[in-house]
């Protein structure tokens, strides 16, 4: 947790004061948008999910514990839940419903700005795709550490697991990725990404 977080108050204070909540939002919106942009490639969906994450903060502010990690790590835990819920919703609906439901109109400048973020985070999406074969628990730890750049402690806090459990899952994930990439005859761009997420680049 940095000095700015301590001075400006945490989530619990922010939800009680609109001015503090605006500061909290401005402090974290770019990090949250980057997190979402690594997981979706549509600007409307990215904008909606980012807004939903901050709405969820209003209900979850009481759960933030500074001793367990930074505000960013805590927000990533909320963001994972919101993104997972969206994926389940999309899986249940038809292509037509998915295309038109839940979207608000965006200005052209907003779309360009979000598309720029989506483009910038495309390597992160490719890295996440390389992790798709891992079991859910191991994939979640590796995503937060290798892609979202959290520490093991912060990843454990975001997932609500013990640090030792996070370390074991990280070790297993790296071992699985190492075995997969070692079996490839020629290195491709995707293979290079796997070397990054397994901690060797």
From TrEMBL:
Family: Belongs to the sigma-70 factor family. ECF subfamily.
Residue ranges of domain RNA polymerase sigma factor 70 region 4 type in the record: 126-177
SUPFAM superfamilies per the UniProt record, alphabetical: Sigma2 domain of RNA polymerase sigma factors, Sigma3 and sigma4 domains of RNA polymerase sigma factors
Keywords: DNA-binding, Sigma factor, Transcription, Transcription regulation
Any one Gene Ontology BP term: DNA-templated transcription initiation
Organism of this sequence: Streptomyces spongiae
GO MF, one example: sigma factor activity
Residues covered by the RNA polymerase sigma-70 region domain: 24-92
Superkingdom of origin organism: Bacteria
Name listed for the protein in its UniProt record: Sigma-70 family RNA polymerase sigma factor
Taxonomic lineage of the native organism: Bacteria, Bacillati, Actinomycetota, Actinomycetes, Kitasatosporales
């Amino acid at each position: 947790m940095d000095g700015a977080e301590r001075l400006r108050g945490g989530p619990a204070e922010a939800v009680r004061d609109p001015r503090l909540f605006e500061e909290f939002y401005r402090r974290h919106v770019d990090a949250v948008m980057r997190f979402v942009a690594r997981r979706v490639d549509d600007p409307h969906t990215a904008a909606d999910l980012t807004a939903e994450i901050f709405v969820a903060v209003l209900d979850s502010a009481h759960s933030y514990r500074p001793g367990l990690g930074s505000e960013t790590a805590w927000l990533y835990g909320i963001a994972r839940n919101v993104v997972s819920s969206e994926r389940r919703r999309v899986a249940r609906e038809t292509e037509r419903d998915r295309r038109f439901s839940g979207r608000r109109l965006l200005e052209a400048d907003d779309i360009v700005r979000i598309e720029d973020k989506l483009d910038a985070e495309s390597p992160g999406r490719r890295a996440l795709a390389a992790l798709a074969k891992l079991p859910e628990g191991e994939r979640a730890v590796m995503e937060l550490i290798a892609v979202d750049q959290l520490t093991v402690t912060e990843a454990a806090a975001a997932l609500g697991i013990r640090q030792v459990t996070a370390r074991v899952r990280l070790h297993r994930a790296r071992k699985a990725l190492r075995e997969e990439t070692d079996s490839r005859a020629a290195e491709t761009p995707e293979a290079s990404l796997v070397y990054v997420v397994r901690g060797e680049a």
